[in-house]
Design goal:
The protein is mostly helical. The chain has 22 helices and four strands. The strands form two sheets. A two-stranded antiparallel ribbon has the order 1-2. Helices cover 54% and strands 2% of the residues.
Length: 543
């Protein structure tokens, strides 16, 4: 069993790993026989695997598997089993493919005409038996997806760390719980069990070493600039008694990686997996299950303004003026990206003012209490009420000048000491996220250089975490980021569990395609990841 298969998936191994249609058909034939010949005592076990068969009938990248599992569900129906049906789509915010021809929508495994994306789906399916919902969202940008998958695989299954696979998945669960991200929590629980983890770990309070790690986790997630103070330095020394240096560095990077991934889950409205609780429901009418090449909600058009249906599509009509204005501002700001021409003091005032618009950050007095996430999450997250505070309002001098400590000259080298292959993979992620472009904005037909807007997003996220780039003109971010997209970016980066469809829709407005909103989320994820790593690795270097 691989590190990402659920405990019940062993009966589907040949369905997942079969290199030929003959092998896969043989496996499905055995499943059909098991269902057809099941005894009364065996029926509960059969009932439990039907959601997995439902997922395969919808999301397998192999047409023969989708059709075969569709037929298995039909057999189960004739035998009187309660059939599951999808309760969600891949995303609450983004329509499945085919629902809006004006945009590149989520390419589902059974409905993608991109050979590169299909290849990624096949590789993931053979490894783990599933194509995660978040991967389908990221597949809107295949060039970035490749960098992400390589880094993710190294972090969770790479050989260059003494951390056991189950430990890595459990650390991912701690981070997902901290960010109140239910879909990622459920996925990490399954991955932890599949990697050999004990269910007792999931049912009991955190053990001492991981409880201490969860204390580090809260600072990393919301206030990483505090890592250099006396309290967190003492915490790091305590952690070294459980995790030696390389283990601790890997654990810290995993926490950062999963924090930022959870932010993208929230920011893009990624739903729980179709075969997990909440992803399916019983088909009380016993209507034919979805299968073959049909999308999960075939026959019902999804409204973007109301993900459950009944609203008008929030398209790009009327957005021409807004797009023209943004394009003109980007053109004008190309020559003013650098801070040359303005004083250092003026630029720093712009830096400070930039973070005050949009969302009012959590104050120390309310501790970051907010709705979102299940109460059970507190089992894996020490002090779940701990939240984000704008570094500009902290008592300590928290602003870090990029000239004094930055990724290329400092962070990269520190990480390389402990995991020499990882910095290159992280660098590829950062670079691809920043440089990824299709030279357009929304429906704007002309080829445009979007570097100014991408820089505005990247450096604004760094500003939210107290990182100052003296060579960047912060007035550009103020000009290029309207209040609604600024609010949305702030929420995704700092309080992602508060993101709702209204935030996504208003941030998108009439300016951006859904695929462009995913790109914005990718930039938020990677800019925040780089910021967290800079603070963490700086603290490590003080040893």
């Amino acid at each position: 069993m691989t590190a990402t298969q659920s405990p019940t998936d062993y009966i589907f191994l040949d369905v997942f790993r079969g290199d030929t249609e003959v092998k896969r058909e043989g496996a499905m034939s055995r499943i059909r026989t098991a269902i057809s010949c099941s005894t009364v005592a065996e029926r509960p076990g059969i009932q439990d695997i039907l959601p997995v068969i439902l997922r395969l009938s919808v999301q397998s990248p192999f047409k023969d598997v989708r059709e075969g599992c569709h037929s298995i569900l039909q057999i189960a129906r004739t035998l009187g089993f309660n059939l599951p049906k999808p309760a969600t789509t891949v995303s609450k915010f983004i329509p499945p493919s085919g629902y809006d021809s004006r945009d590149a929508e989520v390419p589902v495994p059974g409905d993608t005409d991109t050979e590169e994306v299909h290849g990624y789906y096949v590789d993931l399916y053979k490894l783990s038996g599933r194509v995660d919902n978040v991967i389908q969202v990221l597949a809107l940008h295949p060039r970035y997806l490749r960098c992400f998958l390589e880094a993710h695989a190294f972090l969770v299954t790479g050989k260059q760390s003494p951390l056991l696979f189950k430990e890595r998945e459990f650390i991912g669960l701690i981070a997902a719980s901290r960010m109140k991200c239910d879909p990622l929590q459920e996925l990490q629980k399954q991955r932890f069990l599949a990697a050999g983890g004990s269910r007792e770990w999931l049912d009991e309070e955190l053990r001492d070493g991981y409880r201490c790690l969860s204390q580090l986790d809260r600072v990393l997630a919301y206030r990483p600039w505090l890592l250099g103070n006396k309290e967190t330095s003492e915490l790091l020394r305590t952690l070294r008694k459980t995790f030696h240096n390389q283990k601790l560095v890997h654990a810290g990077v995993l926490l950062c990686h999963f924090h930022c991934l959870a932010g993208l889950y929230h920011g893009c409205g990624v739903n729980v997996e179709i075969d997990f609780p909440g992803g399916w429901k019983f088909d009380r009418n016993h209507s034919p299950p979805v299968g073959g090449d049909s999308p999960p909600h075939s026959g019902r058009r999804l409204s973007v303004s109301d993900p459950l249906g009944g609203g008008m599509l929030n398209g790009h009509d009327g957005g021409g003026d807004e797009q023209l204005q943004l394009v003109q501002m980007m053109r004008d700001s190309v020559s003013t990206q650098s801070s040359k021409g303005i004083s250092r003091e003026e630029n720093r005032r712009a830096f400070s003012a930039l973070g005050r618009g949009g969302v009012s950050p959590t104050s120390p007095s309310d501790g970051g209490r907010a709705a979102g996430g299940r109460q059970g999450a507190s089992r894996y997250a020490v002090s779940p009420e701990y939240g984000y505070v704008d570094p500009e309002v902290c008592d300590e001098n928290t602003t870090t000048a990029n000239a004094e400590w930055h990724w290329e000259s400092h962070g990269y080298g520190i990480l390389e000491k402990y995991m020499d292959e990882l910095p290159l993979l992280m660098e590829a992620r950062f670079e691809r996220a920043q440089r990824l472009t299709y030279f357009n904005i929304g429906e704007w037909a002309e080829r445009e250089d979007t570097i100014p807007f991408r820089n505005a997003v990247w450096y604004f996220v760094h500003r939210l975490f107290g990182i100052l780039h003296d060579n960047f003109n912060y007035k550009n971010s103020e000009l290029l980021l309207n209040p609604k997209i600024k609010r949305y970016i702030t929420l995704v980066a700092c309080q992602p569990h508060k993101v709702c469809y209204k935030d996504y829709s208003q941030g998108r407005g009439n300016l951006f395609r859904h695929s462009e909103m995913v790109h914005i989320n990718i930039m938020i994820m990677e800019a925040k990841l780089q910021a967290q790593l800079l603070y963490f690795l700086k603290a490590i270097s003080l040893w």
